[in-house]
Design a protein that fits this description.
8 helices, alpha+beta, 402 residues
Length: 402
């Protein structure tokens, strides 16, 4: 029996626990000092920019492609297993184009994607106006539409992953902090081996330790003498409520322009349902905070997430939410879709994304000088997108080793 300890129950820890739980001969403990999706996962918008990204080759593209393909099977798999409907917007992603965009480069991207088996469509300004009349901006000259990319509710997805992992026998310990990772030298080698996790409730013995704790990964790796330098980048977003959907109700893609996302929350095919983990909600997807359980009726209104800011630490290493930057994001979204100006802000939130300093994101590998400590952290702004491939890489490392 291989004993695996996973520290951190955001989207990364949750999906690693679930994917590994399907393998026989493993005992998995998923540990977090908070509840699942309490950190950066719970503040994410869940926009999966795979085919529409400008990564076309190498590892960066392969990771995106593998994740998107896994999601196509993972979502129905989880829904059937857990009974939790996972809100997914299957209307795709629309990237707005401006005069400064290199159209020749975009045409090449469309051709490359076609050869790779993915569909991207160029929308002229006239076609865009017909399909999305709520986009009213004279600077917008057209769009690139990706019908196979999507948006997923990150919080509910993580809840479903954790429940599915638990059904498969994963031992979940929430509200429990890992203080240290204890290790010893491997005889005859300069390599060390982690043998247990020290918690406030005692020792958990492990054969593999997986650090998927986001910003908490720095403290955990410091206890092993190999601290990761992962720094917070703040993101703020808000939720607007309109009396009716913008544009055509039957076509509500995610709209993105100048790194501002407008995410419709009314187009989940399955809706939000009943489960042991989640109470009944309205037809609209819940915001990342704990939803209000008193409202169980459907509503004809429409809600949209708008985000997100990108705010780096100051010279003291602190990140302080800047209300001016959030207002700038809101104003730019309203410039793309003026109908948003009629909306009421019903919620705003923020979260800290884990960004590695001095190395590319994400970090998915062994901790240097340790034979059994794995890092699955520092995904920065692509944690939801790259979660499935992260779990696959971690699984491959463990079982190639064994």
């Amino acid at each position: 029996m291989i004993r695996i300890g996973i520290i951190g129950s955001g989207i990364i820890g949750g999906i690693i626990a679930y994917e590994l739980s399907k393998i026989e001969g493993i005992h998995i403990t998923l540990i977090d000092e908070k509840m699942p999706a309490s950190g950066s996962t719970g503040a994410a918008l869940g926009v999966l920019m795979g085919a529409i990204s400008h990564k076309t080759k190498g590892k960066a593209w392969q990771m995106r492609e593998n994740s998107i393909r896994r999601y196509q099977k993972l979502i129905p798999e989880l829904e059937e297993m857990t009974g939790i409907p996972i809100p997914v917007n299957h209307d795709g992603i629309l990237q707005l184009l401006f005069p400064e965009n290199d159209l020749e480069k975009l045409e090449k991207l469309i051709a490359i994607r076609a050869n790779q088996g993915w569909n991207l469509e160029f929308l002229s300004s006239d076609i865009l106006k017909d399909k999305c009349p709520h986009v009213e901006n004279s600077d917008v000259v057209g769009g690139i539409y990706s019908p196979e990319d999507c948006q997923i509710n990150p919080t509910i997805l993580t809840e479903a992953l954790v429940k599915a992992a638990s059904i498969n026998g994963v031992e979940c310990k929430f509200g429990l902090k890992v203080e240290n990772l204890l290790s010893m030298p491997v005889p005859g080698s300069e390599i060390r081996r982690c043998y247990s996790l020290e918690t406030g409730d005692g020792i958990i013995e492990v054969d593999w330790a997986i650090v998927s704790a986001g910003l908490g990964s720095t403290h955990l790796t410091k206890s092993l003498g190999k601290p990761l330098d992962i720094r917070p980048v703040l993101g703020q977003a808000l939720r607007l409520k309109l009396d009716k959907p913008m544009g055509h109700k039957e076509f509500q893609p995610v709209i993105t322009g100048n790194d501002v996302h407008i995410v419709p929350l009314l187009n989940s095919e399955s809706g939000i349902g009943n489960s042991e983990l989640l109470p009944k909600f309205t037809k609209s997807s819940p915001s990342p905070e704990t939803p209000n359980t008193s409202d169980t009726t459907e509503t004809p209104s429409a809600e949209y997430w708008i985000g997100a800011t990108v705010e780096f630490p100051n010279d003291a290493g602190e990140v302080v939410a800047d209300a001016v930057l959030l207002d700038k994001v809101k104003q730019e979204a309203m410039e793309f879709c003026p109908a948003l100006a009629n909306g009421k802000i019903i919620h705003s939130w923020l979260g800290k994304r884990p960004r590695p300093e001095g190395q590319p994101a994400p970090i998915i590998r062994k901790l240097p000088d340790y034979e059994n400590v794995l890092l699955a952290t520092g995904h920065y702004r692509n944690g939801i997108l790259l979660a499935p491939v992260t779990a696959q890489i971690i699984s491959d490392i463990i079982f190639d080793y064994n």
